């Protein structure tokens, strides 16, 4: 069992993905920076932030699961935004479309961690 959220693979993966998404979003056209660019930055940030907030409430199993579920939902939202950007701005996004696969992998890991907490977490 990890003693700190920084020990969690899902935390480290989501933080690294956030940094990649943030940098990529700044390459969008200026008019999109505050629209879809802002949405993908916020959803990507929410993935990692909810892991940290949930871990801070790990004493309360139901709260931990709730925040991990929020993280998973934000992960799905980030994938949706990527798909929209891929359609709207292929020259910018296509070279980075592997990030969609990385988010899908993270989603599977989040789901497995939620299942682990549901079945094994002791409060």
TrEMBL record:
SUPFAM superfamilies registered for this protein in UniProt: IVS-encoded protein-like (SSF158446)
Q: Where are the transmembrane segments?
A: none
NCBIfam families linked to this entry = four helix bundle protein (TIGR02436)
- What is this protein's record name? Four helix bundle protein
UniProt lineage = Bacteria, Pseudomonadati, Bacteroidota, Flavobacteriia, Flavobacteriales
């Amino acid at each position: 069992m990890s003693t700190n959220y920084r020990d969690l693979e899902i935390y480290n993966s989501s933080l690294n993905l956030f940094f990649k998404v943030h940098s990529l979003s700044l390459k969008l056209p200026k008019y999109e920076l505050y629209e879809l660019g802002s949405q993908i930055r916020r959803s990507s940030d929410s993935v990692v932030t909810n892991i940290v907030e949930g871990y801070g409430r790990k004493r309360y199993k139901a709260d931990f699961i709730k925040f991990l579920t929020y993280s998973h939902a934000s992960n799905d939202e980030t994938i949706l935004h990527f798909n929209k950007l891929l359609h709207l701005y292929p020259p910018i996004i296509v070279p980075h479309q592997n990030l969609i696969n990385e988010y899908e992998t993270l989603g599977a890991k989040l789901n497995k961690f939620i299942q682990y907490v549901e079945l094994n977490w002791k409060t």
